[in-house]
Structure formats: structure tokens, C-alpha cells
């Protein structure tokens, strides 16, 4: 992939609605300080219906954007070209808005989730469950497939919401089944929760899911422990902050080099600075 020139554009931001809770500014600002770059990274609340006008209004000083809900699908539609992860999931969380790769969209959530799960000791997860059937669930399916999952149970309130995830599974060779929250659940190695932060399940449902759910990875990270993590069993419970950290590392690579695989200078130190910026809160 062609490298993007780094001297012309120095503004970056995370957009979403809501976005005030995002820790991306701390992560990215720490990274650019460690790299010796005088780049600014801010946050902006942008509603889905305002996305197109907002991005059209950016001038040449803007290098790229991080996108959170509900803008990942909007960014996917706006992107001129997309990486494979974005194409498969229909979601873009990283956009280059200027330079030779202007309009290229990426999904760094999969790489971030895989790294977070491995860091948490989950090297392989052949039996897995996902709670929720939104955009993050699609990323979770790809991440679990990379960790060796061959069958994934998606627990959703609406059975029809699993249809697109089942099709994604067929495309990558993973069997995706759907079930209801109050169903009887088989035992799995890991559960990935993609439910909105603050959602509280009925205690009986949480206990049943926890008893058969293995380790819990909850994409929610503020507040922590999440309501679900508080009700889980004694199995390991991992916060979504690890996914946020590692997907941001890939974003920094993209914003600097236009390539998610381009290792940063002294990347180990950069990651340590980013981790300290959010873990110290």
C-alpha cells in the first residue's frame, strides 16, 4: 500500500453520537507525543444524518477520522475503497480523508479484538458465543474465526438480526447459530458481549449465560466492571479497554503510513505510553 505523506495534514478526531465517553483522544495523543509528532486529536459529536455534510466540510489540514457508533455504517457508505475487514463487516471505523489514499476505509476492530483476547490468555476459542447482533458482532465473528472458532452462537433479542451474521459466517467457513437470551445455552470457551454499555440483563439470564459462557470479554469499558461483568461467574472477565487500545495502535499505523501492518518506530514504547494514558484513569 502506498505510504501517505505525513507532513501536510495534522488534524485527527473521533466522531460518534454520543462521543464524550471516548478515550480515543487520550490514546492517540499519547501515541503522537511518543512519536514526536505535533498532531492534534480531538472528539466531535456527529449524528448519523449529519455525517456526510460534516466530512465534506473538512479542509486539507485533516488527516483522518476514527468512527464510533452510529457512524461506522455511514463511514462504510462514504468510503471510496475499503479493506477486507471493512468489506466483510459493512463497517468502517477508520478513514483517511486526505492524501493519496483519500477515502480509504478500514475496520481495525478485528485486529484490536484478536490482540486483546490473546493478551488476556485466550489464544484459541473453538467454542464461542456472542451477545448482541450489531456491527461489533460482525467484527467479533471475524476475530473468533482467527482464533479457531468453527461454530459461534449469537444471542439476540430479534432472531432476524442474526441473518446477516449467519451469511458472514458462511462466507468465512464458520457456522453461526442464533438463540434467544432466555434459551438454554451450551457451554462455550469464551463469550464476547457487544451489548450497549449500561444494559442490565435479568439476573437469571445473566447467571445462565455466565454458568455456560466461559471467559467473558465485554466490549464495554466505561464504567468497569460492566453490569454484565458484575453478574458473571468466577471465569476471567476482560474489559473492552484492551480492544480499544490495540485497535487504536493499528489506527496510528494507518494515520502515519496508510498501512495497518506498518510497525511504528519503537512501537513497544508507543503502546506502553498509550496504555498508561487510559489505564491510569
UniProtKB/TrEMBL annotation:
Protein name: Shikimate 5-dehydrogenase
Presence of the UniProt keyword Manganese in the record: no
An annotated Gene Ontology molecular function: shikimate 3-dehydrogenase (NADP+) activity
One Pfam family here: Shikimate_dh_N
Annotated keywords: Amino-acid biosynthesis, Aromatic amino acid biosynthesis
Sequence intervals crossing the membrane: none
Record InterPro entries: Aminoacid_DH-like_N_sf, NAD(P)-bd_dom_sf, Shikimate_DH-bd_N, Shikimate_DH_fam
GO terms, biological process: aromatic amino acid family biosynthetic process; chorismate biosynthetic process; shikimate metabolic process
Coiled-coil ranges from the UniProt annotation: none
Gene Ontology cellular-component terms listed: cytosol
Species the sequence originates in: Microbacterium keratanolyticum
The protein's annotated pathway: Metabolic intermediate biosynthesis; chorismate biosynthesis; chorismate from D-erythrose 4-phosphate and phosphoenolpyruvate: step 4/7
Occurrences of domain Shikimate dehydrogenase substrate binding N-terminal (ranges): 14-95
Amino acid at each position: 500500500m502506498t505510504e501517505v505523506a505525513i507532513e501536510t495534514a495534522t488534524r485527527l478526531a473521533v466522531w460518534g453520537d454520543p462521543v464524550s465517553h471516548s478515550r480515543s483522544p487520550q490514546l492517540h495523543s499519547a501515541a503522537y507525543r511518543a512519536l514526536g509528532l505535533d498532531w492534534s486529536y480531538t472528539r466531535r459529536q456527529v449524528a448519523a444524518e449529519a455525517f456526510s455534510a460534516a466530512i465534506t466540510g473538512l479542509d486539507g489540514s485533516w488527516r483522518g477520522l476514527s468512527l464510533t457508533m452510529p457512524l461506522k455504517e455511514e463511514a462504510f457508505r462514504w468510503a471510496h475503497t475499503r479493506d477486507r475487514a471493512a468489506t466483510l463487516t459493512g463497517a468502517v471505523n477508520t478513514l483517511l480523508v486526505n492524501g493519496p489514499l483519500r477515502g480509504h476505509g478500514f475496520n481495525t476492530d478485528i485486529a484490536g479484538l484478536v490482540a486483546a483476547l490473546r493478551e488476556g490468555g485466550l489464544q484459541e476459542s473453538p467454542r464461542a458465543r456472542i451477545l448482541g447482533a450489531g456491527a461489533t458482532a460482525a467484527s467479533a465473528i471475524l476475530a473468533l474465526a482467527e482464533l479457531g472458532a468453527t461454530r459461534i452462537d449469537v444471542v439476540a433479542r430479534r432472531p432476524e438480526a442474526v441473518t446477516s451474521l449467519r451469511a458472514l459466517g458462511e462466507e468465512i467457513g464458520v457456522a453461526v447459530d442464533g438463540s434467544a437470551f432466555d434459551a438454554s445455552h451450551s457451554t462455550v470457551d469464551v463469550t464476547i458481549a457487544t451489548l450497549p454499555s449500561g444494559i442490565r440483563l435479568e439476573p437469571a439470564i445473566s447467571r445462565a449465560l455466565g454458568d455456560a459462557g466461559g471467559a467473558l470479554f465485554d466490549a464495554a469499558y466505561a464504567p468497569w466492571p460492566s453490569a454484565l461483568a458484575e453478574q458473571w461467574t468466577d471465569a476471567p472477565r476482560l474489559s473492552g479497554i484492551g480492544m480499544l487500545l490495540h485497535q487504536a495502535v493499528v489506527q496510528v499505523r494507518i494515520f502515519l503510513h496508510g498501512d495497518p501492518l506498518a510497525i511504528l518506530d519503537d512501537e513497544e514504547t508507543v503502546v506502553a505510553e498509550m496504555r498508561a494514558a487510559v489505564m491510569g484513569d
